[in-house]
Amino acid sequence: MNRRQFLASTAALLVARPGFAQEGPFRMRYYPISPGIGLHDLTPARDGTIWFTAQGKGLLGRLDPRDGRFKTVSLGQGAAPHGVTIGPDGAPWITEGGQNAIARVDPSDLSVTLFRLPERFASANLNTGVFDKDGTYWFTGQSGYYGRLSPKTGEMNVFKAPKGVGPYGITVTPKGDVWYASLAGSHIAKIDRVGGNATVVEPPTPNQGSRRVWSDSRGRIWVSEWNSGHVAVHDPEDGSWKTWKLPGERPRAYAVYVDDKDKVWLTDFSANAIVRFDPAIEKFNVFASDKANANVRQLDGRPGEVWGCESGNDRIVMIQTIAAG
């Protein structure tokens, strides 16, 4: 697709769809990727590009938003990548469930390095990863595991989750604490970064299905609750919880992301939408996709922009928020 074709295909999509509450001129743009590629997660890079995982084809891709062009690289035979994040080295690091490994891709030549989990954890079902302030990579495995990898030495430790299956989303707070969410276990947990033990924290809503987590600037842990359709926040400083139900009937909150202004973004499979929540005024904005079955499974961003993968349509979506306040 050349630049003219790309701009023509997206020109009509630059304004958020009408009919929902608006606080400012949010703008949406879609970037089509190859049909059937199986988009899952993404993360913005320092150079302005967007790295994405294509679980359906075992690929990692890099999108240039300036012209909509992208490149992909195979992660290996049987690859099925899930999460991706940028490391302190500027490279994308991937939870590569198909090969039961953590993968690093060199941004300069797209060469792939694999750090495989020990054989006894062959069914870990890797999900997401994050770097702490010391440069250690922490990851989750939905079959009941979480672990850490030292990129400098290659040393890896894998731990059994205290309540078994479920570890899914993971986040790091500004002061360096690491938390994960357990979907099947319906809880969140804080990891002791030295000893590796995890302490379970139970949300107030039973069987809520805590799917993903993200820290705000104050170190509060925001949780997308898949089963309950709530967004919840836990403050580790005082142990408190607050919850809000997403708008609409039977919401299904999948992804959560907190932007640089501490506004909370979620995806709702039932509403086929990305949802913005302002905790200060307890108000939601809903941005519905222009196509059915968008199924945005993850969100990430940088100042002024929120990015997500429409796994159902194999498109990347961006919402500009610079003028939103």
What does this structure look like?
The chain has 325 residues and is an all-beta fold. The protein is built from 1 helix and 28 strands. The strands form 7 sheets. Strands 1-28-27-26 form a 4-stranded antiparallel beta sheet, with no helix packed on it. Strand 6 and strand 7 (92-96) form a beta hairpin. The radius of gyration is 19 Å and the shape is globular. The model is unreliable at 1-23 (pLDDT under 50).
What's the topology here?
Elements: H1 3-10, E1 27-32, E2 39-44, E3 50-54, E4 59-64, E5 69-74, E6 81-86, E7 92-96, E8 101-105, E9 112-116, E10 126-131, E11 137-141, E12 145-149, E13 156-160, E14 167-172, E15 178-182, E16 187-191, E17 198-201, E18 210-215, E19 221-225, E20 230-235, E21 240-245, E22 253-258, E23 264-268, E24 273-278, E25 283-288, E26 296-302, E27 305-310, E28 315-320
Antiparallel strand pairs: 1-28, 2-3, 3-4, 4-5, 6-7, 7-8, 8-9, 10-11, 11-12, 12-13, 14-15, 15-16, 16-17, 18-19, 19-20, 20-21, 22-23, 23-24, 24-25, 26-27, 27-28
Function: Inactivates the type B streptogramin antibiotics by linearizing the lactone ring at the ester linkage, generating a free phenylglycine carboxylate and converting the threonyl moiety into 2-amino-butenoic acid.
EC number: 4.2.99.-
Keywords: Antibiotic resistance, Lyase, Magnesium, Metal-binding
